[in-house]
Design a protein that fits this description.
The structure is a single chain. The protein has two helices and ten strands. Helices cover 16% and strands 39% of the residues. The protein starts with a strand and ends in a 9-residue tail after the last helix. It has one domain: Immunoglobulin-like. Strands 2-10-9-5-6 form a five-stranded mixed β-sheet, with no helix packed on it. Strands 1-4-7 form a three-stranded antiparallel β-sheet, with no helix packed on it. The chain is α+β, with helices and mostly antiparallel strands. It is found in: Membrane.
């Protein structure tokens, strides 16, 4: 069982529309019950991994990131599932980690697979490259020595 398409980190400007793909294929010939969920995590993934690591074995599924929000769920019978997350008119507060979770209910135990991508949102009015702009103004201001007082 494996992801056939995973979301990638993306940087957009405020107000843009984005799509994050997520597709999964189960291996084998049996018909599966697959569920795909999109989650929004305010905090980066390392926080989540840390929380999972210190949780008691057996209760792993109950441990969730306190800042995680479920966005959507799609469930299918079959071996293939895909669910694109669409965000329109992205705002600064949409910035964060988006996680695609696929649960595979086919066997006796449920298997969960995860893929994550980071969304960065730039201000609509930010210059394309702040450092370049600063460098140019620095050169201009320091180029010619200024004369003080009236010219002789």
């Amino acid at each position: 069982a494996t992801f056939t398409e995973v979301p990638k980190d993306v940087t957009v400007r405020e107000g843009d529309d984005i799509e994050m793909p997520c597709a999964f294929r189960a291996s084998g010939s049996t018909s599966y019950s697959l569920e795909i969920q999109w989650w929004y995590l305010k905090e980066p993934a390392r926080e989540l991994a840390h929380e999972l690591a210190i949780s008691v074995p057996g209760s792993r599924n109950k441990v969730t990131n306190k800042d995680a929000t479920k966005i959507s769920t799609v469930r299918v019978q079959g071996n293939d599932i895909s669910h694109r997350l669409r965000l329109s008119g992205v705002r600064r507060q949409d910035e964060g980690v988006y996680e695609c979770r696929v649960a595979d209910y086919s066997d006796d135990e449920t298997q969960e697979h995860k893929a994550q991508a980071l969304l960065r949102v730039l201000s609509r009015f930010a210059p394309p490259d702040v450092q370049a702009a600063e460098a140019v103004s620095h050169i201009q201001s320091g180029a010619a020595p200024r004369r003080h007082g009236p010219a002789a």
